[in-house]
Design a protein that fits this description.
single chain; 516 residues; five-stranded mixed sheet; three-stranded antiparallel sheet; 19 helices; 12 strands; binds protoporphyrin IX containing FE
Length: 516
Amino acid sequence: SGFPSVLRNGLSKLGFPREILELVFNWVDGNEDYLKIPEAKGSISAIRSEAFFIPLYELYLTYGGIFRLSFGPKSFLIVSDPSIAKHILKDNSKAYSKGILAEILDFVMGKGLIPADGEIWRVRRRAIVPALHQKYVAAMIGLFGQATDRLCKKLDVAASDGEDVEMESLFSRLTLDIIGKAVFNYDFDSLTNDTGIVEAVYTVLREAEDRSVAPIPIWEIPIWKDISPRQRKVKEALKLINDTLDDLIAICKRMVDEEELQFHKEYVNEKDPSILHFLLASGDDVSSKQLRDDLMTMLIAGHETSAAVLTWTFYLLSKEPSVVSKLQDEVDSVLGDRFPTVEDMKKLKYTTRVINESLRLYPQPPVLIRRSLEDDMLGKYPIKRGEDFFISVWNLHRSPHLWEDADKFNPERWPLHGPTPNETNQNFRYLPFGGGPRKCVGDMFASFENIVAVAMLVRRFNFQMALGAPPVEMTTGATIHTTQGLKMTVTRRIKPPIMPVLNTLETTILLDQKTE
Ligand code: HEM
């Protein structure tokens, strides 16, 4: 039954006009009433501008919670309505797959957990979720602290030299260092080194992002993909990463074979708490491509997202000094000069709210992608099998119908003693980590990582937009990037002087002299 939709997608990729395909395939599929979903008209070329979700927001205000958007032979349904999003992601999630996302990411993630569908996804989700158990995440907090401390040392130098820093690339390196250790116990040390492997990771990431916004899949053209210098570079980068992965898997396998630990639910090897170690100890097949696909998936999923969250959080903070003072007060009183511990995660309530609010204004990724596997009803609209969907988290998070002062960065909108906002308690108007069975497996990991980084950085430094910094504008790949970086001036915080007790005498004398 999937054949017509495969054929239809194939033909549409070859450039057949959508109208004709629809006519033919509606006839093949049987001819129910055709959908009455509003159809966006106008200059669709605007969608190819840097941040494609911005024109989608304008169209949402005009056409509402679900509308169709066509460019050339391609057509998408854009969803910005919480109950339709809930239906697709949760209530009837079985009827939807990752669609074009799986096609775009195949070269790097294969059948890894993000693009995988059906039985493969079910089996792998069941293998991977247990690896991120509470004790593992708690063990990661020390790693988050050490990695952030390395960044602090770097910023310390910049502060002394009076040199501005480009924070987006530093955050990208911070989160790469963290995820490398966390997923397969590899120290990229990208904050200090530019090794070949770091460059390879960025080559692959850039390619994945370019492919997600490319109008035609030129990388699929048979000869081109072998002779294009760029595609060759991507292939070489992939090979280097895969070879490194193979080495890491072999090293880890040896450790697992030698250790005496019994595998159990909250298994953690203290020397190597990585997800890879857990998976191998739980009996994962070392030789499988599946394991490599999943590791690669987590490397990318956990790296770019967190980097983007930190970038936009610091951008937002640079515009709200009053939020920064509150944040610093909390961090000063909870942490002082200590590294954060897992107990602190509960106490850093305002820090958490700042990140919740940053994730509302800059969701990563800004849209979720799905394809319908069967006919379905979305609210009052019937839809066909084989439709491609963009669920615009950006629109949900910034809808004037769902939020008061939707565009305002206001961490206070989340009461400190209320529950931490998530898709369930916000009825799918807020989905920073998705929802339903395909919800992010790294949500707690990522939240703690961001809390630790923000807390440690604002504790030590003040951040301001650098004088003459380029304007901060958005562009998209998988996550929201700045167009020209986030250039900031970093200064060490001047802590309020602490009055030493011994000085009381001197102070009295001074005061006495004054009153003389
Ligand atoms: C899925 C966001 C960090 C691993 C997702 C999804 C979102 C998301 C929105 C759902 C995608 C969809 O439904 O199409 C984020 C954000 C992060 C973050 C904002 C950081 C702030 C991480 C980390 C890891 C991770 C650190 C790994 C350790 C995954 C995986 C999936 C996923 C494997 C796919 C789950 C599945 O399909 O079953 N993430 N993520 N993420 N995320 Fe994250």
